[in-house]
Amino acid sequence: MSTYTVINPATASPVTEVALASLDETDALIERAQEAFPAWRDVAPGERARLLRSFAAVVDAHLEELAQLEVTNSGHTLGNARWEAGNVRDVLNYYSAAPERLFGRQIPVAGGIDLTFHEPLGVVAIIVPWNFPMPIAGWGFVPALAAGNTVVLKPAELTPLTAIRLGELALEAGLPPGVFTVIPGKGSVVGERFVTHPLVQKVCFTGSTEVGKQIMRGCADQVKKVTLELGGKSANIVFADADIAKAAATAPYAVFDNAGQDCCARSRILVQRSAYDEFLGRLETAVGAMKVIDPADPASEMGPMISAKQRDSVEGYLSGVEAAFTGPVPTGTDGFWLPPTVVLTEDTTIPVWREEVFGPVVAVMPFDDEDDAVRLANDTEYGLSGSIFTRDLGRALRVARAVESGNLSVNSHSSVRYWTPFGGYKQSGLGRELGPDAPNAFTEEKNVFIAQD
Ligand code: NAD
Predict the structure, then answer these.
(1) In terms of CB atoms within 10 Å, which end of the chain has fewer, N or C?
(2) Residue with CA closest to ligand 1 atom 35
(3) How many domains are there within the chain?
(4) What pLDDT is attached to residue 435?
(5) Are residues 12 and 155 in the same domain?
(6) 160 in contact with ligand 1, CB cutoff 6 A
(7) How confident is the model at residue 1 (pLDDT cuts 50, 70, 90)?
(8) Pick from 227, 186, 229: which is nearest to 204 by CA?
(9) Are 289 and 302 spatial neighbours (Cβ–Cβ below 8 Å)?
């Protein structure tokens, strides 16, 4: 049996061993999910709702345990980890209202009645990355279950612990065996099998754009449904008329949260030239004051990178690039730490400006006017999120409509809200998660005409 040693990224010390599923085990669990499907589909809407609320209550009762697991496994700050466990609970509560509201339509036709139904797909597979193990799992498995599907879920190799625990808590809450199955394993084994197994009806993937493309190609063989949530290189656009103090004080958290390992990280800051010097001065103060300390300390604002490999990759982006200034970093620990790092550039071709670094590095560039800002913001293959700081409401609207991105915030770096849709333009993804319509994405829409004579 192959196993994976989970490492605490803050200390580089081993935590536990996790068994990795083989191909045969994966097949057996997919078949078990298929066997569980007809009974789960037929659970009365009110009863399925009650079971999801019960699941939410059990998650709530284990919130601190789940948060601590995430701190140890992923190096997330305790504050973030508590929010993440709470997010799973909230998403369960929100979509627990979906089973009784999976409405079809009645469409006017001659000679009878026309009805639409949202019918569950069957077995749905969720593939989760290591950067936000709990929320990203929940955004997939919860609406899928609410719509009457059974779910198989593969956590990332590096971060399986909270997903495994959520699988146990589902059973404790009364979900029937086989309805929600967590299968720890390798992407090349379990993940690929989700794509190729004929019983899996949909793959919901969050991860790198490179692997996402591979999954989309694989799904084409069976015309399998696929949702992709991929990378980002989002812009934080600061106009000179904005509250510069607020823009500069909040910018570090919009990129360095989760040590920059966030698909929504605003890793490019565009600042209007006339406010550039003031903004940079204030940014330096804010970055210098960040609490980059042991993530288990409730005051911690930034923890370590997930792995030595990820830290080395980020360091690779920084070699040959001069940092304008950096924030603090702990010393005397073997963990995978890097300081928050600010790079100034006017060159749009350098990798730090173009590529998703996925670490605590931000590149800052001046711009001249609104057109210039929009052109620079859109000069990327990605389009996931972004922020616009201005006091001019008209400008805020114009720029928000012009930036090619799925999730924008004005005078804020709002994080994802589970009751609003989330997803990417361009190579940041395909389809949307969350929001009121998410369960429909896990259904087939069936149209039935009934003749009256
Ligand atoms: P990754 O693509 O390497 O892995 C993601 C998941 O896919 C893991 O569970 C992995 O085991 C699995 N996988 C790997 N190869 C596979 C294959 N051939 N077939 C099936 N599954 C396979 O990404 P990562 O390094 O874990 O996560 C970081 C990336 O995720 C970043 O690029 C980030 O931007 C992206 N991300 C995007 C969002 C979003 O919502 N858009 C959210 C979080 C992370």
Answers:
(1) C
(2) 207
(3) 2
(4) 98
(5) yes
(6) no
(7) confident
(8) 227
(9) no
The answer to whether the CB of 231 is under 6 A from ligand 1 is: yes
Exposure string of 71-99, with b = 16+ CB inside 10 Å and e = fewer, is bbbbbbbbbbbbbbbbbbbbbbbbbbebb
CB burial of 361-375 (b: ≥16 within 10 Å; e: otherwise) equals: bbbbbbbeebeebbe
What percent of the residues of the chain are helix, what percent strand, and what percent coil, each to the nearest 5? Answer: 45, 20, 35
Asked if the structure places residue 274 within a domain, the reply is: yes
**Residue 259: helix, strand or coil by DSSP?**
helix
Q: Is residue 422 part of a domain?
A: no
Q: What CATH code is carried by the domain that includes residue 151?
A: 3.40.605.10
Strand ranges (E), 260-351: 268-272, 323-326, 341-344
Share above pLDDT 90 across residues of the chain, in percent, rounded to a whole number:
99
Verify whether residue 263 is a known catalytic residue: yes
pLDDT for 409 beyond 80: yes
Do 223 and 76 lie in one domain? The reply is yes
Q: Report residue 438: phi and psi, to 5°.
A: -55, -45
Domain span including residue 267: 235-417
Q: Are 384 and 263 in contact (CB under 8 A)?
A: yes
Count of beta carbons in the 10 Å neighbourhood of residue 50: 15
Closest-CA residue to 232 (of 261, 253, 190, 199) = 261
pLDDT higher than threshold 80 for residue 415? no
15 and 149 belong to one structural domain? yes
> 171 with 305, same domain?
no
